[in-house]
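[Q] Does anyone have a clean C-alpha cell version of this?
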Amino acid sequence: MIYAVPDIHGHARELDRALALIEVDGGAEAPVVFLGDLCDRGPDTKGVIDRLIAGRAAGRDWTVLRGNHDQMFLDFLSDPNDPRAHTRSGISWLHDRVGGIATLASYGVTATERHPNGQAAARAIPEAHKAFLDSLPYYHERAGKLFVHAGIHPRLPMTLQDPIDMMWIRETFLDYTDPHPWLIVHGHTALDAPQHFGNRIDLDGGAGYGRPLAVAVFDGPEEADCFLLGEGGRAPLIP
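[A] Here you go.
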C-alpha cells in the first residue's frame, strides 16, 4: 500500500488535512509519495516545506519529488536578477499566474516583478529549505508504477529521460494513449478532479487554484487498485 499527494502549491492547511486522512486510513507510518510543486500560489509555502522536512526527520516514509515550481524557486534563489529566466513561458516567476510572490511572502519577504528583492530572499529563506529542495529526485518507481511530477517522454527509457520533461512536459505525454512500461502517476496538469486515463493517472485536482488537495492510495494485489481518500473513506478511481 502506498499513498500519493499531488501539487500542494503552498496550501499547508490542505497538506495537514491530507496527512490526517492518510493517518486514519493507513497509520502514521504509511509510505507517501509527494508529486512535487510544493510551493507558489498558496499562502504558506514555508509551512509546507517545514512540515515535510519535519516528517522526514521524524522517520516518516515520505518520498518528495521535484516539480517545476520547486525548480523555479531554486533558480530564483540562485539568480534573482531576471525572474523571467526561471519559467519556460518567459513570464516572471513573480507574475501572479506563477505565484512566486506568495512564496516569498510566506518567508516575510515583499517582492514585485520590478523589485525581486533577491538579497532579502537569500537572507530570509533557511539553508535547510534550499538544501531540501535541491535534494528532491525527479521520479520514484514502485510496484509497476512510476511517480513523476509532469510525465515522461513516451517510448524513451528512463536513462534517456530529460529532467526538464519530467517537471514540465504536457502534450507529448498527455496525448499518448498507448501503454507505458508502468502506470504513471503524476500531477502538474490541473484538472477539475483527479482522473484515471488507463495508462496514467493525473492526481492534480487544482489545489493551486483553491480546490481541495487530492489524496490517493494504491492498494490491492500488487498495489494495482487506486482509491481517492475523503472524509467518508475510500472511493475507487477507475479508467
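[Q] Thanks! Anything notable?
[A] The radius of gyration is 17 Å.
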